[in-house]
Amino acid sequence: MDAKKTAVIVGAGPAGLTAAFELLKRSGAWRVIVLEETQEIGGIARTAVHGKCRIDIGGHRFFSKSQEVNRLWAELMPLQGKPAWDDIRLARNKDFAEGGPDPEKEDRVMLLRDRVSRIFYLRHFFDYPIALKLQTFLNMGLWRTWCAGWSYLRAAIFKREEKSLEDFYINRFGKVLYAMFFEDYTEKLWGVHPSKISPEWGAQRVKGLSLIKAVLNVLKPKGAKRETSLIESFLYPKKGPGQLWEIMADEIRARGGEIRMGTQAVRLETKDGAIASVTAASGERIPCDALFSSMPIRDLVAAFDKVPAPVAEVASALPYRDFITVGLLVDRLAIRNQTPIRTLNNIVPDTWIYI
Length: 355
Prior knowledge:
- The protein has helices at residues 14-26, 67-76, 85-89, 134-140, 142-157, 165-173, 175-181, 183-190, 199-205, 211-219, 241-254, 297-303, 309-316, and strands at residues 5-10, 30-36, 47-50, 53-56, 110-114, 117-121, 124-128, 233-237, 258-261, 265-271, 274-280, 285-287, 290-293, 352-354.
- The chain is α/β, with parallel strands linked by helices.
- The chain folds into 2 domains: 5-113 and 238-316, FAD/NAD(P)-binding domain (3-Layer(bba) Sandwich), CATH 3.50.50.60; 116-230, no CATH class.
- The chain is 34% helix and 19% strand.
């Protein structure tokens, strides 16, 4: 008779897979079953495969100040020990891991990537984070530069009470730069105007970033500590973010865990204040001793067999954002270099371009 307890984990995205992996690694007392309603591993952090092309959906960069998170990544995918194809051709000098895998010979390797981020605005490319150089001011034009400067000085002297994300941004960048680079982008991304979003959102997402810190960032020596939003390099799985979660899924299976693809959890039964079982869309009932859910809150509440009416009403009204990713397969991307960085045939190796 199997004396192990059963843990059901809903969702094979980063949260669900990490929960399953850690539980199996730390304790042999659990039988772990992961339920994933799609046929894909990694959720919105997966990497879609089209022929020989791998297209990222999300999870754009791997960077964390948490040593626990960094150790987990290194456990699954060690850092490159030798230069990759583009490192060689661009003569990049990096802090490769001693004894680490060669990315030209092995696939299970985390690459150290240089961050090149730019914003396409006013039909010009602006470096992000902001770079104090002639090209930046030429792109903005004399009048916009003048207005942005005075706007920032006013914001620095007359601080707004931070009741919204709009206040948060204006206090740090001034109203002109806020309107140029933050207002429309934030509303398009989240579907809510910054004036209706809590300022705590900015503290979490942008952390210590501000115009003055962006300026000071330019003056810091190479290798000095920087704000999270100003980092110049990050880790990246050789075959895209989804590769990490695919490897983690393989590790879960190797440790005895089950991952049931195409299995949607639709009902959660409770007994004495605890989850007693999970029912799949197929009608299969899975008794369990513990549940870890990465379902959307709206779906999670709807799945419970007993929920107070006010809670169900609030959950059902929660708004969610969706997105559309379009992958373009092209022979070349003719975006020319405006910055003094190493390039391949004068093509900038951008990691992000904001439009």
